[in-house]
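Example record

One chain of 95 residues, shown exactly as stored in the release files.
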Amino acid sequence: MQEFIDFLTFKSFISYNMLFIFYYIGSIGVPFIVFIYTKKFYIYPKEAIDTFLPTEYKIKLSLTFIAIFVFLEIIWRMMFEFLIAFLQIRDALIS
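Predicted structure tokens for this chain:
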């Protein structure tokens, strides 16, 4: 019971396992869900994109989206590495 009270009063932090779970939900789960739902809305804009954009712009647009995706994945990873390092430093100072 004391551990639960410590958790509710922020005397103990969440475990590293929860951070790993949330990391993988954000890095794999969210892009997968976004991919599935954007396929539903992509049918009509795809026809407009095919008629108005030349091939070189489609390639540039695709490469831009891939670069943004990779950049956001790196930022997501760095944020969780910082949180894990923070918790390790806190544990080392308290112990």
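Notes: The chain is about 85% helix and 0% strand.
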